[in-house]
Amino acid sequence: MTEDMKGLLLDDRWAPITSEMGFLETDAEHAAQAFAAWQAGLLAPRGIAVDVRPVSGSLEQALSTLLPLTSPESRRDLFIPTRSPWTAYVENGWGGTDAASPMGYMARTLGCRGLRVVAVPHTIRKNKGRYGAVMLEVYGPHQTDWLNYVRALGASNDGGHWVFDQSGEPFPFEKVEQYQARRVRDRFTFDMLKEYLRHLGLSPFEQDFYLPEGAPAWLVERSGTFVPAQTEYTLAQAREDF
Q1: Is the pLDDT of residue 240 over 60?
Q2: Buried b (16+ CB within 10 A) or exposed e, 164-187
Q3: Among 187, 182, 186, 184, which residue's Cα sits nearest to residue 170?
Q4: For residue 141, with 0-12 CB atoms within 10 Å meaning exposed, 13-18 middle and 19 or more buried, which class applies?
Q5: What percentage of the chain has pLDDT greater than the value 70?
Q6: Per-residue burial over 54-80, b = 16 or more CB atoms within 10 Å of its CB, e = otherwise
Q7: Could you tell me which of 14, 73, 192, 240 has the fewest CB atoms within 10 Å of its CB?
Q8: pLDDT for 3
Q9: Is the pTM of this model over 0.90?
Q10: Are 131 and 124 in contact (CB under 8 A)?
Q11: 52 close to 32: Cβ distance less than 8 angstroms
Protein backbone atom coordinates (compact mmCIF):
# COMPACT_ATOMS: atom_id res chain seq x y z
CA MET A 1 0.00 0.00 0.00
CA THR A 2 1.29 3.43 -0.85
CA GLU A 3 2.27 5.76 2.00
CA ASP A 4 -0.43 8.31 1.18
CA MET A 5 -3.16 5.66 1.41
CA LYS A 6 -2.31 4.01 4.72
CA GLY A 7 -5.33 3.49 6.94
CA LEU A 8 -7.74 1.90 4.49
CA LEU A 9 -10.52 -0.22 5.95
CA LEU A 10 -9.21 -3.57 7.27
CA ASP A 11 -5.82 -2.75 5.73
CA ASP A 12 -7.40 -3.16 2.28
CA ARG A 13 -7.67 -6.96 2.74
CA TRP A 14 -11.19 -6.95 1.38
CA ALA A 15 -10.45 -4.94 -1.77
CA PRO A 16 -11.91 -4.75 -4.34
CA ILE A 17 -15.16 -5.15 -2.36
CA THR A 18 -14.35 -2.23 -0.05
CA SER A 19 -12.39 -0.12 -2.55
CA GLU A 20 -15.69 1.54 -3.38
CA MET A 21 -18.54 1.78 -0.89
CA GLY A 22 -21.97 3.32 -0.80
CA PHE A 23 -23.72 4.98 2.14
CA LEU A 24 -27.35 5.87 2.77
CA GLU A 25 -28.50 8.16 5.57
CA THR A 26 -31.12 5.73 6.87
CA ASP A 27 -31.59 2.52 8.88
CA ALA A 28 -29.81 -0.60 7.58
CA GLU A 29 -32.80 -2.96 7.61
CA HIS A 30 -35.02 -0.31 6.03
CA ALA A 31 -32.44 0.27 3.28
CA ALA A 32 -32.03 -3.48 2.64
CA GLN A 33 -35.77 -4.13 2.44
CA ALA A 34 -36.33 -1.21 0.07
CA PHE A 35 -33.40 -2.28 -2.10
CA ALA A 36 -34.70 -5.86 -2.21
CA ALA A 37 -38.16 -4.67 -3.27
CA TRP A 38 -36.61 -2.64 -6.09
CA GLN A 39 -34.52 -5.59 -7.27
CA ALA A 40 -37.44 -8.02 -7.01
CA GLY A 41 -39.48 -5.81 -9.31
CA LEU A 42 -36.68 -5.74 -11.86
CA LEU A 43 -35.83 -9.46 -11.72
CA ALA A 44 -39.22 -11.14 -11.31
CA PRO A 45 -39.74 -11.41 -15.10
CA ARG A 46 -36.56 -13.51 -15.25
CA GLY A 47 -37.72 -15.83 -12.48
CA ILE A 48 -35.06 -14.60 -10.06
CA ALA A 49 -36.07 -14.43 -6.40
CA VAL A 50 -34.72 -11.83 -3.97
CA ASP A 51 -34.41 -12.55 -0.26
CA VAL A 52 -33.22 -10.54 2.77
CA ARG A 53 -31.71 -12.00 5.93
CA PRO A 54 -29.79 -10.67 8.94
CA VAL A 55 -26.08 -11.48 9.32
CA SER A 56 -24.42 -11.47 12.73
CA GLY A 57 -20.77 -11.54 13.71
CA SER A 58 -17.74 -9.35 13.02
CA LEU A 59 -17.32 -7.03 10.07
CA GLU A 60 -15.12 -9.55 8.25
CA GLN A 61 -17.64 -12.32 8.92
CA ALA A 62 -20.34 -10.11 7.44
CA LEU A 63 -18.22 -9.35 4.38
CA SER A 64 -17.53 -13.06 3.89
CA THR A 65 -21.24 -13.64 3.19
CA LEU A 66 -20.70 -11.87 -0.14
CA LEU A 67 -18.37 -14.64 -1.34
CA PRO A 68 -17.90 -15.97 -3.92
CA LEU A 69 -17.67 -12.90 -6.11
CA THR A 70 -19.53 -13.13 -9.41
CA SER A 71 -19.41 -11.76 -12.94
CA PRO A 72 -21.02 -10.40 -15.05
CA GLU A 73 -23.97 -10.17 -12.64
CA SER A 74 -23.64 -9.56 -8.92
CA ARG A 75 -25.79 -11.76 -6.69
CA ARG A 76 -25.40 -10.42 -3.16
CA ASP A 77 -25.57 -6.99 -1.57
CA LEU A 78 -24.74 -6.15 2.05
CA PHE A 79 -26.15 -3.30 4.13
CA ILE A 80 -24.11 -2.63 7.27
CA PRO A 81 -25.23 -0.43 10.18
CA THR A 82 -22.73 2.08 11.55
CA ARG A 83 -22.21 4.22 14.65
CA SER A 84 -23.93 7.07 12.84
CA PRO A 85 -27.18 7.71 10.94
CA TRP A 86 -25.52 6.20 7.85
CA THR A 87 -25.76 2.62 6.50
CA ALA A 88 -22.88 1.22 4.45
CA TYR A 89 -23.40 -0.68 1.19
CA VAL A 90 -21.14 -3.18 -0.63
CA GLU A 91 -21.81 -5.93 -3.17
CA ASN A 92 -20.17 -9.03 -4.61
CA GLY A 93 -19.28 -8.05 -8.15
CA TRP A 94 -15.94 -9.51 -9.28
CA GLY A 95 -14.57 -6.03 -10.03
CA GLY A 96 -15.69 -4.62 -6.70
CA THR A 97 -18.66 -2.62 -5.50
CA ASP A 98 -20.38 -0.34 -8.00
CA ALA A 99 -22.18 2.11 -5.73
CA ALA A 100 -23.13 5.02 -8.00
CA SER A 101 -26.40 3.84 -9.56
CA PRO A 102 -27.86 2.03 -6.54
CA MET A 103 -27.00 4.83 -4.11
CA GLY A 104 -28.33 7.51 -6.43
CA TYR A 105 -31.56 5.58 -6.97
CA MET A 106 -32.04 4.66 -3.30
CA ALA A 107 -31.45 8.26 -2.17
CA ARG A 108 -34.41 9.32 -4.31
CA THR A 109 -36.54 6.33 -3.27
CA LEU A 110 -35.92 6.68 0.47
CA GLY A 111 -35.82 10.48 0.53
CA CYS A 112 -32.37 10.65 2.10
CA ARG A 113 -28.78 11.50 1.22
CA GLY A 114 -26.53 8.91 -0.39
CA LEU A 115 -22.79 8.70 -0.94
CA ARG A 116 -20.29 6.98 -3.20
CA VAL A 117 -16.83 6.72 -1.61
CA VAL A 118 -13.81 5.48 -3.59
CA ALA A 119 -10.29 5.00 -2.20
CA VAL A 120 -7.87 2.95 -4.32
CA PRO A 121 -4.08 3.15 -3.82
CA HIS A 122 -2.08 3.79 -6.98
CA THR A 123 0.10 0.69 -7.32
CA ILE A 124 0.26 0.14 -11.08
CA ARG A 125 3.67 -1.12 -12.22
CA LYS A 126 4.33 -2.81 -15.57
CA ASN A 127 0.61 -3.54 -16.15
CA LYS A 128 0.20 -5.02 -12.67
CA GLY A 129 -1.50 -3.29 -9.77
CA ARG A 130 -4.32 -0.75 -9.62
CA TYR A 131 -4.84 2.73 -10.96
CA GLY A 132 -5.33 5.06 -8.02
CA ALA A 133 -8.50 6.98 -7.26
CA VAL A 134 -9.96 9.13 -4.49
CA MET A 135 -13.59 10.10 -5.07
CA LEU A 136 -16.62 11.38 -3.22
CA GLU A 137 -20.10 11.73 -4.67
CA VAL A 138 -23.09 13.02 -2.71
CA TYR A 139 -26.65 12.35 -3.87
CA GLY A 140 -29.82 13.99 -2.60
CA PRO A 141 -33.49 13.02 -2.60
CA HIS A 142 -34.41 15.53 -5.30
CA GLN A 143 -33.57 16.27 -8.93
CA THR A 144 -30.58 18.57 -9.49
CA ASP A 145 -28.86 19.89 -12.59
CA TRP A 146 -27.51 16.36 -13.16
CA LEU A 147 -29.83 13.57 -11.92
CA ASN A 148 -29.76 13.95 -8.13
CA TYR A 149 -26.04 14.68 -7.71
CA VAL A 150 -25.40 17.30 -5.02
CA ARG A 151 -21.60 17.28 -5.12
CA ALA A 152 -18.91 15.22 -6.85
CA LEU A 153 -15.14 15.34 -6.38
CA GLY A 154 -12.44 13.06 -7.65
CA ALA A 155 -8.74 12.69 -8.40
CA SER A 156 -8.02 9.52 -10.35
CA ASN A 157 -5.45 7.97 -12.62
CA ASP A 158 -7.10 7.45 -15.98
CA GLY A 159 -4.94 4.83 -17.67
CA GLY A 160 -1.65 6.58 -16.93
CA HIS A 161 -2.41 10.24 -16.27
CA TRP A 162 -4.09 11.93 -13.32
CA VAL A 163 -7.33 13.88 -13.74
CA PHE A 164 -9.30 16.00 -11.29
CA ASP A 165 -13.03 16.56 -11.63
CA GLN A 166 -15.63 18.38 -9.58
CA SER A 167 -19.26 19.39 -9.98
CA GLY A 168 -21.91 20.93 -7.78
CA GLU A 169 -21.54 23.56 -5.07
CA PRO A 170 -18.69 23.06 -2.56
CA PHE A 171 -19.59 22.36 1.05
CA PRO A 172 -18.48 25.01 3.58
CA PHE A 173 -15.88 22.64 5.04
CA GLU A 174 -14.05 22.00 1.76
CA LYS A 175 -10.44 23.10 1.20
CA VAL A 176 -11.20 24.64 -2.17
CA GLU A 177 -7.75 26.24 -2.46
CA GLN A 178 -6.25 22.75 -2.63
CA TYR A 179 -8.04 22.14 -5.95
CA GLN A 180 -5.45 24.40 -7.59
CA ALA A 181 -2.47 22.28 -6.48
CA ARG A 182 0.20 21.91 -9.15
CA ARG A 183 0.26 18.13 -8.93
CA VAL A 184 -3.16 16.82 -9.99
CA ARG A 185 -3.25 13.92 -7.55
CA ASP A 186 -2.74 16.40 -4.68
CA ARG A 187 -5.95 18.26 -5.48
CA PHE A 188 -8.11 15.70 -3.67
CA THR A 189 -6.21 13.33 -1.39
CA PHE A 190 -7.13 10.42 0.85
CA ASP A 191 -6.63 12.63 3.91
CA MET A 192 -8.99 15.22 2.45
CA LEU A 193 -11.56 12.50 1.73
CA LYS A 194 -11.41 11.31 5.35
CA GLU A 195 -11.75 14.87 6.64
CA TYR A 196 -14.72 15.63 4.40
CA LEU A 197 -16.43 12.41 5.47
CA ARG A 198 -15.93 13.29 9.14
CA HIS A 199 -17.78 16.54 8.47
CA LEU A 200 -20.62 14.43 7.05
CA GLY A 201 -20.61 12.21 10.14
CA LEU A 202 -18.72 9.19 8.82
CA SER A 203 -15.48 7.36 9.67
CA PRO A 204 -15.74 4.61 7.05
CA PHE A 205 -12.10 3.51 7.14
CA GLU A 206 -12.26 2.59 10.84
CA GLN A 207 -13.37 -0.96 11.65
CA ASP A 208 -15.19 0.00 14.85
CA PHE A 209 -17.39 2.40 12.89
CA TYR A 210 -19.43 -0.62 11.79
CA LEU A 211 -21.88 -2.99 13.53
CA PRO A 212 -22.48 -1.11 16.79
CA GLU A 213 -23.61 -3.07 19.85
CA GLY A 214 -23.91 -6.32 17.93
CA ALA A 215 -26.45 -4.97 15.44
CA PRO A 216 -26.76 -7.29 12.41
CA ALA A 217 -25.90 -6.48 8.85
CA TRP A 218 -28.51 -7.30 6.21
CA LEU A 219 -27.76 -9.48 3.19
CA VAL A 220 -29.83 -9.19 0.02
CA GLU A 221 -29.42 -12.31 -2.11
CA ARG A 222 -30.74 -13.20 -5.54
CA SER A 223 -31.37 -16.82 -6.56
CA GLY A 224 -32.51 -18.37 -9.81
CA THR A 225 -31.22 -18.65 -13.36
CA PHE A 226 -28.50 -16.17 -14.29
CA VAL A 227 -26.81 -15.54 -17.62
CA PRO A 228 -24.93 -18.58 -19.03
CA ALA A 229 -21.59 -16.79 -18.74
CA GLN A 230 -22.03 -16.24 -14.98
CA THR A 231 -18.71 -17.06 -13.26
CA GLU A 232 -17.70 -17.30 -9.60
CA TYR A 233 -14.39 -16.08 -8.14
CA THR A 234 -12.66 -16.30 -4.80
CA LEU A 235 -11.45 -13.08 -3.21
CA ALA A 236 -7.89 -14.20 -3.92
CA GLN A 237 -8.67 -14.59 -7.63
CA ALA A 238 -10.13 -11.09 -7.74
CA ARG A 239 -6.93 -9.76 -6.17
CA GLU A 240 -4.46 -11.62 -8.41
CA ASP A 241 -3.35 -8.51 -10.32
CA PHE A 242 -3.10 -6.19 -7.31
Answers
A1: yes
A2: bebebeeeeebeeeebeeeeebbb
A3: 187
A4: middle
A5: 98
A6: ebeeebeebbeebeebbbebbbbbbbb
A7: 240
A8: 55
A9: yes
A10: yes
A11: yes
